[in-house]
Write a structure and sequence with these properties.
This is Helix-turn-helix domain-containing protein. The protein is α+β, with helices and mostly antiparallel strands and 266 residues long. 53% of the residues lie in helices and 16% in strands. It has two domains: 152 residues, Jelly Rolls, CATH 2.60.120; 106 residues, Arc Repressor Mutant, subunit A (Orthogonal Bundle), CATH 1.10.10. A hairpin with a 2-residue loop joins strand 3 and strand 4.
Amino acid sequence: MVSKETLDQIKSLPLAQMVKREPWRASLPHSETSHTLLWITRGQGRITVAGRRSGFGTHNAIFIPAGTMFAIEPGTGTFGSVIFLPQDERLGLPTDPVHLRTRDVSAHKEFNANLEQLQRELDSERPGQDRAAFAYAALLGVWLDRQHAEEAAAQYSDAATRLVARYTRLIENKYPTGHNVQHYATALGVTATHLTRVCNQVSGQPASQVLNDRVMYEARRLLRDTKEPVNAIAKSLGFSTPAYFTRAFQSHSTMTPSAYRNGAHI
């Protein structure tokens, strides 16, 4: 049986819709409670997954497991789809990030056909619609398995990439604590200098920016999507004082938290 809660987590939307109104929701590092599958049909851009930055282009498929930090910066004229999939073992989805650059035309057609059928079932009210939508979501998992084979493991096998992936996992679990890079480096058994050097190598950003961007994403989300007082938001994100939070936010976004909340960013 496929529960309504599980089916509600299966969604497909155009990439442009994800980034059109508030680009920071895509371009600042964050994670989703569902698995995220990106399918690029035109254009190019950059994506950072688990701290690893790389370029993407047409007919790239990028799978991001739930709870994994990522940020995407699509270029002008980039088109594609974003598919959200539930954390359900029956779908057989990968446990690690996968970035595929497919060249086989038949593989492109197969993915597009499965995605179109999935969307058709999500939009329908026919009997068995829930089972059919789940089945097409599972077929996307099969497609990923067949395409990437050993490629995903090879992409994430080197020591530098593994360290940065561990760092982003720690950030995702602890960013509201206010811990600095030194704390994370100690937890990872390396020096802050080494962690920064490796982050620059893998993601093109220092360790401090990786951490700060994640915190600022959450700050924007809370200011935009909730009515929590600024003081409470500052405290929930580990800032010692509201004034410190205001300075950090203004440095990152060029406006105060209150101005951002009141619509100065629109």
